[in-house]
């Protein structure tokens, strides 16, 4: 009995102590801790300001899949992309492009990550579109309604661009146009036929054209011309596919009537862009001034077009913007890091011109090609530097298209070296020297240093020549639609519809004017084919390193034309010294060609989703 | 009982010392005059006895203190209870103490022995026999929220008593000192880098695949303490809780086991003692990288490699360049250097540890205070780590039934390093982290005459080749960190058996990291001009990063202990606990430092700057309960539970319940068993436990909250706010749960000379937390994909620990062997698993490899193999699926080989003591792991320029002249670097981890200096390693870039006590 009593006492004591401590010690909200730097979802989507903020997120996500398109130029024959500066896992540092293959062949299986980020942008735009439609639009009125519709239009333009990129690489792709709340909503989606996807894209573009203001609300936000131009481009691509066929895409049939209709629609859209909005080429398409060979104080307008000085100019119909302050999170582009060498802020020269581009630059005097240059090795041939027409003789580059000096550095061409955000003066590029001491006309220079080129040239295009911003801090508004491209697409579309047209020749000449080239000789637009070749020539020179060439080759089914048919010896890429560097398409089988015409649906997704079919060459 | 033990003991003693009388022995009984030391001893005792009798009121007490087998114990502290008198025994175990009268009580205390109080009772001679603690029935073990008698323990708990054997070793932190000490605990040191040489601790194999697989560290009741910042000299015991029943009181964080650390107190000490422990050592790498200090030959290798595919005229390095370098390097080492980089960037490492402690107490209070410093200089130049520790532990009796105590621990560290891993950095954003492979021999590190740092000079060399010296001189990081932990407790026992206690703990830290690179540029001494590589730009600035935070812990605990009847012992425990974390970060950097000596951010221009900052908090609320029952001293039962609620999870999935139950049976207490086994089995216990544990470590603090992330954009040249929805929440995500079954058998034979513990466990982790497998249509936006409880992983294993301790004549010796085997098996994975090193029914990260056919010697070999683009000199691979091609499908899965960790660990401890000398040896090893030896420094397909070749590149590659070459040819097929069995090495090893030789100076020599103990120790770490692995170290898990070796060290230690 006594024992029981004692236990009872103990229990009471236990209880008393326990409760006292519980009451005094407890933190009430111990288990409800709110984040300190992230916004709770339920607090968002109240008004237009929120819609704009969400739209900015969508822009940033879409930027991530467009602003390094220059890597894609490696799929063509004039740009070598030996690697990328993209940082794995960092969407603002090119993660979408990271790890992919940018060679002229064998790339189709390496774009799983790009595919992933394209759909990332789809989700981001869907998020804006869905939430505006669901939460804000039903109650909006007046100016607020217009404003919301503009935001919606921008988001739909972005979504259209993303799906357009998807179909132009993979053909049929899964389509969804709504915000997703659970994996199961999309995990079993089959591919939608390219035709249906195209129609959805057109619907987005149509809406954007109807609702966008003529001029975007600030540099970085799109206006109506962008939507019209992209719709035209979609028609043009569709026309090309229908005309030339896409045998690797199962179920896709050639249809010349449909092709014609698309080309016609494309021409109409491009014409509208050209005429209806008062757009002009940069500095009215004037070539500007040019310095003497080997000097770089004065550079042509075409060079300036690809530096931040051209931000906001009317030629840039659609751009993705950047900001150059070394702030966190970084908004800078890395064009300098990718396009130039160590001499310029320790850049890495991942992207360089191939030797073969040089002969593409025509003579100002004749408006036609110069004699093919001769490749000589100056380390074994003492006369190489002075031999007429030698690739290592700087004088061989005299009198060329102004865009050549704007785009390339050849031997003894100088550019401003930069270190630690300060200029270190001019540095001449001399192939196969690396930061060597060179005396030119009595002045000592340290030569351009890069191990990134194997052609004898490096790019000047996209590389800033003034100090202040580092290699990863570029503030260039990267163009994804330029008026010059629209001109050339217009010429191409009209040529497809009804052969060379006067207004088409006229816009091509406007572009040639920029290189200070004379107008096209009559023979160059004497026939459909001659004019097509002239347009292609301008596309190669004008749009080099802008990521267009691979898409052009595929939609024109021109890979065999450029690299030779299956089983052939292939084509070497060389350097200014005449050494063979890389040979592509040597003894290459049909399957590889097919695989270069259409990309591989990510197999990891097919492992999970049995409804997802694969493109034929990838089985 | 007594008889049995004595008999068993006697049998052994008889074999050894048969001139002694066996009956008079017994090392477990505390009998003061139990001295039978042969006839001589008797005379002595009698003599002493009479001597003391005659001194009547002079009040001197003499006596002999003996230990096991009645051997005299030296250095035993003898004090008068409640008085000031004290003495210690000499080498013969004799003492003499002067006391006021012969009425008091003497207290005999000695480390490793239980303290004994003996009333003088008017005697002048008091002889006592002390019992070793480890053999004692009252031996207690620290467990979660309390202590338990070892004999009644039903969980699987291993303890490490931190004594001189550990503290005298030149191990830079405790984690790396635990290697080989505890079966089932693997402590793997991956690097010998000063400040970054902690060992990663894993208990009983990989418990989860979600990353958080380390045990919970609890120091003096405070969870989440950095084990490596504790002063090893402050530690009294370390308990490793391995099974559910011992660990489940730590609930949601205990799935990977718990390590409990208890620091020293002055409890039980009567006399204040002052101790000094010092340790000084020199360190050298166990194995290094043999970089070639011969640039001309390095260039020749470039030529050789280039010759495979490049015309001679198109090669980068010409014969002239190479010949010139070879010739002129003999006379002009500045302009034509052949730098031995390994020599330049390495130094003799050193390690010092000094520690002073004082402890003491009386009936009402006790204290322990210590200060310590450790100073490490790494093997890499300018890599150092210094840490100061201070501790003060104090307990006091407020009333008879009330205690209060206070513990304070502070530490302060200063860490200097160039790159995160010393020579390399795994962060892809830091490109210098990969550069060591570009440290060519043709660069002069530094020219003191001009003060310039060298760059490339040879024509054709890549100007980006690397001068590591400049980086390690000019581009250093410093991290200072201070931590302070304070703990206050108050306990009250209002009635017998009931104790209530509150604990409050605060752990505060402040860390400051700064980087102040000094501008420097590569110099070309041939052309006398700066090369183009700018190691650190002229606008180099200052970066400062501050991390601060605290953690608080509040515990309210009640325990109630009662006896029901004679034979039923019942203990109950209930704890309420709250834990709270807050961490803040702020960082800022500016370009253009004003002057090279300045290091704070204000000392730079403001033109270009950037900042960042954030914070996060977490809360955990827990209810813990335990019930222990001991019946008839042989039937044991324990039940535990813990309920944890964490702010990491959403309401509804927030609370986890982790119960466990264990039973034990001390079967040697049963007469019907003891009858048969008593002659050899001193004690035996069977125990079994089953229960569940949790793991929330993979989940971020705010991961489960529906929030928007920022993704900014730029309009009109200005940054715009942008929000995106990154998260799709799995509202049902909860703890990862591990259920453990453990069965163990503890046996002690031959009067506790031989003790064994055997454990078998089966540990099933269910619902492992992993980011779910999202459709690729979503992963570009929703990232990371929401976690799901994805799969089950089972670890089965066994552990054995056998110890033999005895003495032979005057030699005391002990041998301990422990071994553990673990096998894990992935049992369930509810999402798609492709080909790779993870698959159902296989160990996690098993070896999945191509099978090689060796190096093709002839074209015929190439033709005989499946076409794979090989030439003679390339590695040929087997076409396992016979489809005529080598694809990734041709890899084979090895069921019994794991890539990451060994399946078997074993260790052997040996100790020997003779007179003042003692010797300790620790040998340790592992087996059951294979890994590829492919790294950046054995690349046979190195780049066309700037590659730091090793001498292996010169001698090992296959060539027509060297057809026995161990490596494939230089510049061969890219497949030569694939993960084939060719590069797969057996990572088994056997390592002499530690050898220690100590000498204790006889106390009688020291007595007049007031020194009670002086011991000198020579110790060596990682003395030798037997392994087939060709890389740096078979123990660690590096990456292809790892370069910092493990240390071999030789040290001298001093222990001094006053």
Outline the structure in words.
The complex is a heterodimer of chains A (619) and B (1058). Chain A has a two-stranded antiparallel ribbon with strand order 2-4. A two-stranded antiparallel sheet of chain A has the order 3-11. Chain A has a two-stranded antiparallel sheet with strand order 5-10. The N terminus of chain A is likely disordered. In chain A, a hairpin with a 2-residue loop joins strand 6 and strand 7. Chain A has 619 residues and is mainly α. Chain A is globular. Helix content of chain A is 39%, strand content 9%. Chain B is mostly beta strands and 1058 residues long. Helices cover 10% and strands 44% of the residues of chain B. Chain B contains 14 helices and 53 strands. In chain B, the strands form 13 sheets. Chain B has a 22-stranded antiparallel β-barrel. A five-stranded mixed sheet of chain B has the order 10-15-16-13-14. A four-stranded antiparallel sheet of chain B has the order 3-2-5-6, with no helix packed on it. The radius of gyration of chain B is 33 Å and the shape is globular. The N terminus of chain B is likely disordered. Classes of the chains: A mainly alpha (619), B mainly beta (1058). At the A-B interface, helix 1, strand 1, helix 2, helix 3 and helix 17 of A face strand 24, strand 26, strand 27, strand 28 and strand 29 of B. Strand 1 of chain A pairs antiparallel with strand 33 of chain B.
């Amino acid at each position: 009995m006594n024992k029981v009593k004692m236990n009872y006492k103990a229990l009471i004591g236990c209880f008393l102590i326990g409760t006292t401590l519980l009451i005094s010690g407890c933190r009430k909200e111990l288990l409800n801790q709110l984040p300190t730097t992230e916004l709770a979802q339920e607090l968002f989507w109240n008004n237009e300001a929120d819609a704009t903020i969400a739209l900015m997120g969508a822009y940033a996500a879409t930027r991530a899949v467009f602003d390094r398109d220059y890597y894609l130029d490696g799929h063509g024959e004039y740009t070598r992309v030996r690697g990328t500066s993209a940082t794995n896992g960092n969407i603002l540092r090119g993660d979408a492009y990271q790890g992919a293959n940018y060679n002229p062949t064998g790339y189709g299986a390496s774009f799983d990550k790009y595919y992933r980020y394209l759909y990332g942008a789809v989700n981001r735009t869907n998020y804006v579109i869905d939430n505006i439609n669901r939460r804000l639009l039903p109650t909006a009125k007046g100016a607020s309604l217009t404003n919301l519709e503009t935001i919606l239009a921008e988001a739909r333009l972005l979504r259209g661009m993303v799906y357009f990129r998807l179909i132009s690489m993979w053909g049929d792709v899964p389509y969804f146009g709504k915000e997703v709340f659970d994996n199961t909503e999309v995990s079993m989606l089959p591919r939608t036929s390219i035709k249906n996807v195209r129609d959805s894209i057109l619907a987005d573009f149509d809406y954007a054209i109807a609702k966008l203001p003529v001029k975007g609300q600030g540099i970085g936000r799109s206006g109506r011309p962008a939507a019209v131009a992209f719709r035209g481009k979609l028609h043009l691509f569709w026309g090309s596919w229908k005309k030339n066929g896409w045998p690797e895409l199962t179920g896709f049939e050639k249809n010349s009537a449909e092709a014609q209709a698309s080309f016609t629609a494309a021409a109409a859209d491009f014409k509208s862009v050209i005429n209806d909005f008062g757009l002009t080429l940069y500095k009215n398409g004037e070539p500007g001034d040019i310095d003497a060979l080997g000097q770089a104080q004065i550079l042509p307008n075409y060079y300036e077009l690809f530096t931040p000085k051209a931000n906001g100019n009317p030629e840039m119909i659609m751009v993705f913007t950047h900001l150059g302050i070394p702030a966190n999170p970084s908004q800078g582009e890395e064009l300098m890091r990718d396009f130039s060498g160590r001499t310029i802020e320790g850049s890495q020269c991942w992207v360089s011109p191939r030797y073969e581009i040089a002969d593409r630059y025509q003579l100002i005097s004749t408006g036609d090609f110069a004699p093919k240059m001769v490749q000589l090795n100056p380390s074994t041939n003492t006369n190489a530097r002075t031999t007429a027409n030698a690739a290592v003789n700087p004088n061989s580059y005299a009198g060329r298209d102004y865009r050549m000096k704007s785009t390339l550095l050849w031997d003894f061409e100088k550019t401003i070296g930069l270190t630690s955000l300060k200029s270190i003066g001019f540095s001449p590029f001399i192939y196969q020297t690396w930061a060597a001491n060179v005396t030119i006309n009595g002045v000592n220079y340290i030569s351009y240093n890069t191990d990134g080129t194997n052609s004898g040239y490096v790019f000047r295009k996209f590389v800033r020549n003034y100090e202040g911003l580092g290699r990863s801090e570029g503030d260039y508004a990267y163009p994804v639609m330029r008026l010059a491209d629209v001109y050339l697409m217009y010429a191409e579309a009209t040529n497809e519809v009804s052969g060379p047209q006067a207004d088409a020749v006229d816009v091509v000449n406007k572009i040639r004017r920029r290189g200070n080239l004379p107008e096209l000789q009559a023979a160059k637009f004497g026939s459909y084919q001659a004019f097509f070749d002239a347009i292609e020539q301008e596309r190669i020179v004008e749009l080099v390193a802008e990521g267009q060439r691979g898409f052009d080759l595929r939609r024109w089914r021109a890979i065999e034309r450029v690299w030779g048919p299956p089983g052939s010896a292939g084509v070497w890429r060389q350097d200014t010294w005449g050494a063979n560097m890389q040979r592509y398409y040597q003894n290459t089988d049909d399957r590889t060609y097919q695989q270069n015409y259409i990309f591989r649906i990510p197999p990891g997704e097919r492992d999970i989703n049995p409804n997802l079919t694969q493109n034929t060459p990838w089985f | 009982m007594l008889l049995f033990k004595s008999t068993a003991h006697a049998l052994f003693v008889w074999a050894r010392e048969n001139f002694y009388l066996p009956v008079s022995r017994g090392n477990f009984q505390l009998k003061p005059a139990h001295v039978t030391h042969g006839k001589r001893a008797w005379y002595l005792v009698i003599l002493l006895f009479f001597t003391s009798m005659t001194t009547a009121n002079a009040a001197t007490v003499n006596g002999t203190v003996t230990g096991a087998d009645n051997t005299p114990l030296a250095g035993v502290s003898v004090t008068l209870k409640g008085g000031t008198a004290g003495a210690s025994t000499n080498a013969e175990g004799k003492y003499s103490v002067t006391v006021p009268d012969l009425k008091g009580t003497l207290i005999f205390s000695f480390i490793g022995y239980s303290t004994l109080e003996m009333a003088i009772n008017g005697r002048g001679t008091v002889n006592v026999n002390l019992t070793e603690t480890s053999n004692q029935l009252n031996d207690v073990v620290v467990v979660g929220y309390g202590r338990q008698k070892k004999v009644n323990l039903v969980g699987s708990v291993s303890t490490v008593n931190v004594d001189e054997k550990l503290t005298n070793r030149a191990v830079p932190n405790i984690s790396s000192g635990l290697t080989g000490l505890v079966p089932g605990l693997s402590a793997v040191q991956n690097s010998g880098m000063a400040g970054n040489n902690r060992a990663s601790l894993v208990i009983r194999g990989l418990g989860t695949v979600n990353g958080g697989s380390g045990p919970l560290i609890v120091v003096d009741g405070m969870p989440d303490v950095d084990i490596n910042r504790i002063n090893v000299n402050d530690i009294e015991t370390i308990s490793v809780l391995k099974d559910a029943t011992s660990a489940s009181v730590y609930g949601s964080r205990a799935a990977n086991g718990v390590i409990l650390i208890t620091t020293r107190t002055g409890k039980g000490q009567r006399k204040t003692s002052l101790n000094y422990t010092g340790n000084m050592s020199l360190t050298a790498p166990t194995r290094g990288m043999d970089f070639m200090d011969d640039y001309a030959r390095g260039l020749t290798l470039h030529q050789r490699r280039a010759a495979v595919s490049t015309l001679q005229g198109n090669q980068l390095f010409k014969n002239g360049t190479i010949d010139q370098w070879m010739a002129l390097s003999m006379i002009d080492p500045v302009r034509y250097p052949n730098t031995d980089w390994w020599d330049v960037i390495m130094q003799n490492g050193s390690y010092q540890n000094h520690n002073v402690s004082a402890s003491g107490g009386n009936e009402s209070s006790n204290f322990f205070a210590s200060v310590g410093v450790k100073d490490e200089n790494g093997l890499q130049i300018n890599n150092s780590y210094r840490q100061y520790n201070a501790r003060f532990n104090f307990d006091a009796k407020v009333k008879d039934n009330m205690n209060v105590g206070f513990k304070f621990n502070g530490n302060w560290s200063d860490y200097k390093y160039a790159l995160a891993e010393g020579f390399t950095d795994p962060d892809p954003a830091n490109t210098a982290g990969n550069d060591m492979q570009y440290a060519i021999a043709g660069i002069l590190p530094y020219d003191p005459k001009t003060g310039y740092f060298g760059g490339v000079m040879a024509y054709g060399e890549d100007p980006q080749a690397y001068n590591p010296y400049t980086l390690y001189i000019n581009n250093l990081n410093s991290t200072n960190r201070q931590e302070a932990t304070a703990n206050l407790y108050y306990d009250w026992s209002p009635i017998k058996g009931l104790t209530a206690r509150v604990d409050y703990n605060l752990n505060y830290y402040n860390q400051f990291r700064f980087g102040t690179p000094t501008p420097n540029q590569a110099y070309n001494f041939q052309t006398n001009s700066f090369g183009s590589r700018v190691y650190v730009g002229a606008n180099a600035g200052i970066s400062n990063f501050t991390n601060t935070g605290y953690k608080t812990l509040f515990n309210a605990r009640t325990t109630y202990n009662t006896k029901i009847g004679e034979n039923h012992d019942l203990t109950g425990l209930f704890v309420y606990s709250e834990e709270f974390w807050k961490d803040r970060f702020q960082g800022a950097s500016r370009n253009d430092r004003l002057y090279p000596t300045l290091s704070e951010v204000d000392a730079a221009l403001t033109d270009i700057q950037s900042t960042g900052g954030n914070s996060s908090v977490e809360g955990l609320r827990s209810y813990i309960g335990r019930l222990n029952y001991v019946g008839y001293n042989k039937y044991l039962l324990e039940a535990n539970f813990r309920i944890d609620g964490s702010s990491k999870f959403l309401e509804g999935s927030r609370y986890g319940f982790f119960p466990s139950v264990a039973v034990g049976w001390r079967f040697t207490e049963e007469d019907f068993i003891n009858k048969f086994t008593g002659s050899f089995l001193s004690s035996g216990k069977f125990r079994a436990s089953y229960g569940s544990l949790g793991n929330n470590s993979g989940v971020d603090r705010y991961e489960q909250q529906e929030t928007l992330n920022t993704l900014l954009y730029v309009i009109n040249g200005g940054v715009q706010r942008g929000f995106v929805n990154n998260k799709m929440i799995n509202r049902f995500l909860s703890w990862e749960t591990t259920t453990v079954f453990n069965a163990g058998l503890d046996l002690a034979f031959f009067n506790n000379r031989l003790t064994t513990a055997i454990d078998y466990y089966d540990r099933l982790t269910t619902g492992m937390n992993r980011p779910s497998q999202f459709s690729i249509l979503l992963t570009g936006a929703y990232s990371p994909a929401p976690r799901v409880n994805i799969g089950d992983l089972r670890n089965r294993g066994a552990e054995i620990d056998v110890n033999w301790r005895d003495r032979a004549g005057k030699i005391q010796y002990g041998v301990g062997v422990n071994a553990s085997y673990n096998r894990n098996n992935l049992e369930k994975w509810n999402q798609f698993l492709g080909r790779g090193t993870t698959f159902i029914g296989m160990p996690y990260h098993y070896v999945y490899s191509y099978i090689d056919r060796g190096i093709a010697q002839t074209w015929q070999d190439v033709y005989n193999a499946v076409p794979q683009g090989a030439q003679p000199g390339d590695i040929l691979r087997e076409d396992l699926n016979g489809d005529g091609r080598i694809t990734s499908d041709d890899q084979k899965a090895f069921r019994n080989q794991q890539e990451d960790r060994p399946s078997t660990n074993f260790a052997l401890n040996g100790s020997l003591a003779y007179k003042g000398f003692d010797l300790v040896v620790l040998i340790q090893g592992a087996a059951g792991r294979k890994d590829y030896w492919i790294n950046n420094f054995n690349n046979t397909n190195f780049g066309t320029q700037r590659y730091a070749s090793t001498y292996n590149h010169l001698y090992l590659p296959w060539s027509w002249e060297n057809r026995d070459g161990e490596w494939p040819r230089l510049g061969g097929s890219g497949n030569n670097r694939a993960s084939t069995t060719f590069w797969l090495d057996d990572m088994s090893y056997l390592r002499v981890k530690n050898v220690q030789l100590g000498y204790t100076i006889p106390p009688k020599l020291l007595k007049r200096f007031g020194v009670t103990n002086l011991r000198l120790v020579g110790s060596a770490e990682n003395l030798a390693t037997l392994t087939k692995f060709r890389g740096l170290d078979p123990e660690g898990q590096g990456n292809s870039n790892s370069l910092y070796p493990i240390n071999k060290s030789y040290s001298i230690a001093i222990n001094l006590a006053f």
